[in-house]
Design brief:
3-stranded mixed sheet; globular; mainly beta; 13-stranded mixed sheet; 5 helices; Phage tail protein beta-alpha-beta fold; 20 strands; Pnp Oxidase, Chain A; single chain
């Protein structure tokens, strides 16, 4: 959750004025335009994707990029979108939702211009290795930063939230994104870009944290509609991680199972035995492979209950936050999986969430 004032939080429970703004710069931070008004649009954040944040919005015809140096040209433009609340004294409290390049611009028959934005992780994924790349730094988090800087020399970094580990001697062929995925998995995390454009490595294992916001129905509540589902799709109670060995011998294979007595997904219990195999093309130690298996197990046993909710927009919410949802007499604490933030007044904010399973890993 992003930090906000008490005034912002209290304003959500009554009539309030939403504000969205677009600032445009180049990758070096040179300002191309500020305060661009939004006609319509939204920003989506889905933490299970490499490119976590995407946006689409429409502007008047005068913003059509007629040259390569126009403010919103896909050749040079990096967009930062802000949204929040405007107060009666004329002040505003805005939060960064996405920082990323213009990937597509289209002039519509009605004269409006639609734009699509991908966050800066798209730049990293697009910069494949031109030749085989060797690991060079001592720790995995430093190696992740080095590979990101190799794609975006101007990259900035936020606060990581995983443990670190020594970097094995590695050689990657061409896929920079896959190299980063594997390195992040080795420390039980995922790499991604925040709304302000900074890169972080953080766990996303669906373990409940402190409840940071309540979205409940009823008078002055923030919940407008919700659908709750219980499904087996994507659920497993055993995760096998298979990783290469540095000496070329038989790969490391580690298993994490849900063996918690009474757990709804207990391995060998009434749920059955459902095994997911994850192959990592980066050599890992036994401990690193076990960490990756446990992190993945926490995610895939967390699919028992899912919510899709429409709520009053709170632009401080982030994927990975723990929230309390309540609708028609039923409530649950959930982890936010994905959010779609509206940029104009009148639309709700949609959230997808998952429940949490308590799991215990065992070595096999």
């Amino acid at each position: 959750m992003l930090t906000s004032s008490d005034l912002y939080k209290s304003s959500l429970h009554g009539p309030h004025h939403r504000v969205a703004r677009i600032d445009v710069m180049d990758i070096d931070g040179n300002v191309l335009a500020t305060g661009v008004p939004v006609v319509s649009g939204s920003v989506s954040a889905q933490l299970t994707n490499r490119v976590t944040r995407t946006a689409s919005f429409t502007l008047p015809d005068e913003w059509w990029p007629r040259t390569a140096t126009s403010p919103l040209s896909p050749y040079q433009s990096v967009v930062r979108i802000w949204a929040g609340t405007g107060f009666s004294d004329g002040s505003e409290e805005l939060f960064p939702l996405i920082t990323g390049r213009v990937w597509n611009a289209a002039r519509q028959p009605n004269g409006g211009v639609s734009f699509n934005i991908d966050d800066l992780a798209a730049d990293v994924v697009a910069c494949r290795f031109e030749a085989p790349e060797k690991s060079t730094t001592a720790t995995i988090l430093d190696e992740i930063r080095r590979l990101i800087l190799g794609a975006i020399p101007q990259a900035v970094f936020g606060t990581d939230a995983t443990t670190d580990a020594p970097t094995p001697q590695l050689v990657w062929d061409e896929d920079r994104g896959q190299a980063l995925d594997d390195l992040a998995q080795a420390v039980g995390g995922r790499w991604y870009a925040l709304g302000d454009g900074s890169f972080v490595v953080r766990p996303f294992n669906y373990q409940l944290g402190p409840v940071v916001q309540q979205f409940l129905d009823g008078p002055q509540g923030l919940m407008s509609t919700a659908t709750t589902a219980i499904t087996r799709d994507g659920t497993a109670n055993s995760v096998v991680v298979v990783a290469e060995r540095m000496d070329g011998t038989e790969p490391v294979r580690r298993i994490a199972r849900d063996i918690t007595p009474g757990s709804p997904t207990e391995f060998g219990g009434k749920f059955g035995r459902v095994v997911q195999v994850t192959k990592i093309q980066t050599p890992l130690t036994v401990a690193q492979a076990q960490t990756a298996a446990r992190a993945q197990l926490a995610a895939v046993t967390a699919l028992a209950e899912q919510w899709t909710a429409g709520v009053v927009p709170d632009y401080t919410m982030e994927p990975g936050d723990t929230v309390r949802l309540g609708y028609r007499g039923y409530s649950a604490d959930q982890i936010i999986d994905g959010i779609t933030y509206p940029l104009v007044t009148g639309n709700t904010m949609s959230m997808t969430t998952r429940s949490i399973g308590t799991t215990t890993g065992t070595d096999e």
